[in-house]
Amino acid sequence: MPLTWRILLALIAGLLAGAVLSATEASVLPQVIAVAEPIGTVWLNALRMTIVPLVFGLIVTGIASASDAAAAGAVTRRALLMFAVLLIASGLFGAVAAPALLSIWPAPGGAGEAFRDGLAAQTQVQSIPPPAEWLYQIVPINPVAAAAEGAMLSIVVFAVLFGFAATRIPAAPRASICAFFDAVVQIMLVIVHWVLLLAPLGVFALALLVAARAGLGIVGGLAHYVLLMSLLCIATTLALYLLIAALGATSVATFARAAWPAQAVAFSTQSSLASLPAMVEGVRQYLPVPPRVSNLVLPLAVSLFRITSPVANLGVALYIAHLYGINPSLLEIAAGALVAAVVSLASVGLPSQVSFFSVVAPVCIVVGAPVEPLALLLAVESIPDIFRTVGNVTADVAATAIVGSREVEGDVPAAEAKAVS
After folding, report:
1. Domain 3-420 belongs to what architecture?
2. Cβ atoms of 419 and 68 closer than 8 Å
3. How far apart are CA 332 and CA 80, in angstroms?
4. Does residue 408 register a pLDDT over 70?
């Protein structure tokens, strides 16, 4: 059975077990809680301990990969610029759309209380500093201290500067640095894989605690979360059609025909990589894009570009803040959007269970939301992930159409020909 389904079944079983124990006022309830609480806490801590090294390593290696790709030619540089602009736009869209949706359609009554009461022992809610102090903390005086304190915005800023600086040093030490951080990422992924193997046990323990302490009020919150995140991803996908119409890259109907095969594969497989052959065929059949462009941009997009990550990951962080009654400032939301865009660029290719925690947790920390509820939201993320993937492949086709509309058939530049081959 896939891990996603085992985690979901563990969530359901934990909620039911906790609700039964609470409703029947079983005498063993205190003993059960005494056992479940340390299990859930230790599992959460095991996930948390990988965040800083994994995020730092992903950003450094991601910037190095993008720099290498940019050296391939003008088409690649234009594609990378397109990816960066769209990722930032996605984060800013999430900064507007998520609070608007939550104000129109807030979480059901009791959901926030259920999360707060059920995870009270595990939750670490950070205090939000005054704006001036928050701005001072963006550039860390001591990066090591910032890492020890989990000051995620400072860590991301330093990682970005470190990554770009690494691209400016001679090839030999640059290769050594990149190899080191790639090894760090691989090691962290092994640890995360080990921790996720225990996810059914950890999620069961946490779900039992929530239901035992706060009843089944959390169920409404989880359902509301799934619908809200799915709506954010669908809205992002629809915005791509508006972008195509605004830029005049091709007609919306033609773009829809080109994207549809890849969307169908993405919906059924939840994999952008598995959708790549359908993307290539759709672009070649319907869009006036030179093959030399589509052969370069589509694989690059699958490797580096996830349009729904910033909007959805910021949406998750703001949803948790909403549940806990936390009101991030505009500066914090804007910073969360930028962090979501940067980290999403570096985390493409990670398994969904890994990327969910490692990419969303930094955004939560930036906006002042606790990361502990992510353990339960992870269990239901498989449904929003369908719409994430559909949006991602749609954006891959859209980026190819936009870049390709500015290219004409002709001789392939030498560097780009080498990249395509």
Report:
1. Orthogonal Bundle (1.10)
2. no
3. 26
4. no
- The pLDDT value given to residue 13: 92
Q: For 207-228, how does the pLDDT look when each residue is reduced to its tens digit (9 = 90+)?
A: 888 888 777 778 888 999 999 9
- Dihedral angle of Cα 322, 326, 329, 335, to the nearest 10 degrees: -70
Mean pLDDT in residue range 273-301: 87
pTM of the model: 0.84
Of the candidates 143, 214, 156, 208, the one whose C-alpha atom is nearest the C-alpha of residue 364 is 156
pLDDT tens readout for residues 294-329:
888 888 888 788 899 999 999 999 999 998 888 888
Region 157-186: what's the mean pLDDT?
Answer: 89
Distance separating alpha carbons of residues 377 and 51, to the nearest angstrom: 17
Going from N- to C-terminal start, the domains of the chain cover 3-420
> Closest Cα partner for 297 from 64, 67, 69?
69
pLDDT at 131: 57
pLDDT at residue 419, rounded to an integer: 44
Question: What is the token pair recorded at 281?
Answer: 């065929």
Q: Which of 310, 398, 373 is nearest to 112 (CA)?
A: 373
Instruction: Name which of 19, 2, 9, 10 is nearest 43 in CA terms.
Output: 10
Q: Are 207 and 14 in contact (CB under 8 A)?
A: yes
